[in-house]
Amino acid sequence: MLKSWLEIEPAPGRGLTLQEPVNHATNVLRNRVWYRGDACELDQLFKQLGDDPVSRARFWAAAPESENLRKAHSGLPAVMVDTLAGIVRADLEQLHFDDADAARRWQGIADDNDFAALVARAVSECLVTGDGAFRVSLDPAAAPGPILDFAGADRVEYIRRHGRLMEIDFLTRVGQRGRMLRERYAPGSVRYELTDGEDNPLPLEAEPELDPLQDVCFDAGVFLAVPLQFWPSARWPGRGASLFDKKTDAFDAHDEIISQWMDAVRAGRVQRYIPESLIPRDPATGALQVPGRFGASFVRIASSDREAADDRIETVQPQIDCAAFESAYAATLDQCLLGIMSPATLGIDLGRMASAEAQREKKDVTGFTRGAITAALEKALPLLAQAALQAEDLLAGRAPGSYPARAGFGEYAAPAFDERVQTVAAAAQAGIMSVEAQVDELWGDSRDDAWKQAEAGRIRAEQKA
After folding, report:
1. Which helix (H) or strand (E) is 168 found in, with range?
2. What is the pTM (predicted TM-score) of this model?
3. What does the pLDDT average to over 388-409?
4. CA distance 171 to 220
5. Rounded CA gap, 76 and 269, in Å?
6. Which of 70, 345, 388, 451 could form a disulfide with 146 if both were Cys (CB 3.0 to 4.6 A apart)?
7. How far apart are the C-alpha atoms of 87 and 91, rounded to whole Å?
8. Cα 230 to the chain's mean position, in Å?
9. DSSP 8-state symbol, 405
């Protein structure tokens, strides 16, 4: 009896079917529209995406077109991406090579391709679309050296085998018929394929502008494409996650609060009620005239015929609950920025809602996001520099060499110079920091090692004197 009482029947398996609301291409398109920040485009997009009850209930999909409702967009998604890209670009330092000749050659390639702007554009593309890839092209008709470019997730496909990247395909629309050029970058080769709108193969000669393209093979150790992603996608394996993937509902709610606020302000204009007997008339025709005041708006009411009636102009100002709108605005703003960046990074003053110490702690969230971005770039940029130098070797007819490099970024939200001086001076007086450590802490990566050693020697000489 005891054995029978302890027996547990296993639960039967259930088959569950979940339908994804959008595929990868549609998701990238939605994120691009968020980044473009046009309210008209957002309205059209979400009304077309409203195929399920959740999507139809969102503000941008549910707001009726028949009513004269003001639909406003905050522009917050684009501001977040541009701010992060600007922070990374400002902290980007020059790549360091062990070979001085390689450093000189890379500097020429970087200047020719505006390397800092390329990195900022790559960061923006990855934050918006989820991932992308750098590529190195050789076209003597366009530039004498290697050409560096970046393509977002909607123009890149990855071929993997056992989780290892074997090939990166770059997709480009060419011609007037919507044909697709597929550039297949693999270790040791670059191949080109042209297809029509239904993925049927076509010869490259079908498009005159593609006639100069030719498949090339070279050293198998050279890969002229470098992938880049900051966070892996939980929905599509092998692809990257966009900054907007989990914030669609938060952005939508934020826009709804702003739109309601602006609509309440519009409906809350001062309204005047003027008796008909007090409205001026045209002396020639006797028609009623609008009182001569800029932006005049009033409602005509009938004059009173009661005894001892006093006809007066009444002005009515509706009351707008601004405190409720401000509270909802701050709440949805926090949801949009949660886990990504601090409001202080965007210049939003929320000091009245939290202490200065709490604001400094929130600032660390931006540092975490920036750290994920710079960690990915520190791996990708040296590979890109090596691929560019190897492409230059191939163009010159030389055997591709090996060019190890290191990418560095400055400190984020570092203390001011005078604060560092005070800290270093206190440590030096306590005798817990050497002269070399003092110089390194004070100047960081803004000076090279030779200058730091010379500076430490000068400080010792002055101290002895």
Report:
1. strand 164-174
2. 0.80
3. 91
4. 23
5. 28
6. 388
7. 6
8. 12
9. E
8-state DSSP, 433: S
CA–CA dist 72, 261 (Å, integer): 10
- pLDDT tens track for 343-394: 888 888 755 555 555 555 555 788 889 999 999 999 999 999 999 999 999 9
Half-sphere exposure for 120 (CA within 13 Å, toward CB): 16
Extended beta strands in 220-359, E state: 225-229, 271-275, 298-301, 314-316
The first and second tokens of residue 320, run together, are 């707008």
Q: Where does the pLDDT of residue 294 fall: very low under 50, low under 70, confident under 90, or very high at 90 and above? A: very low
Q: Is 417 within 8 Å of 410 (Cβ atoms)?
A: no
For residue 137, give the 3-state DSSP assignment: strand
Task: Determine the Cα angle at 132 with ends 129 and 135, to 5°.
Answer: 150
**Would you say 122 and 134 are in contact if contact means Cβ atoms under 8 Å apart?**
yes
Residues 6 or more apart whose CB falls under 8 angstroms from that of 306 comprise none
- The full DSSP string for 171-204 is EEEETTTTEEEEEEEETTEEEEEEE-TTS-EE-G
Helix ranges (H only) for 248-355 are 248-267, 322-337
Give me the phi and psi of 459, to 5 degrees please.
-65, -40
pLDDT at 430: 82
Question: How long, in residues, is the chain?
Answer: 465
Q: Collapsing DSSP states into helix, strand and coil, what is residue 384?
A: helix
Residue 67 has pLDDT above 70, yes or no: no
The closest of 74, 72, 73, 79 to 347, measured between CA atoms, is 79
pLDDT tens digits for 254-290? 999 998 888 777 776 666 666 666 666 777 887 777 6
For 266, counting Cβ atoms within 10 Å of its Cβ (0-12 exposed, 13-18 middle, 19+ buried), the class is exposed
Report the alpha-carbon distance of residue 215 to residue 383 in Å, rounded.
23
Q: How far is 368 from 379, CA to CA, in rounded Å?
A: 17
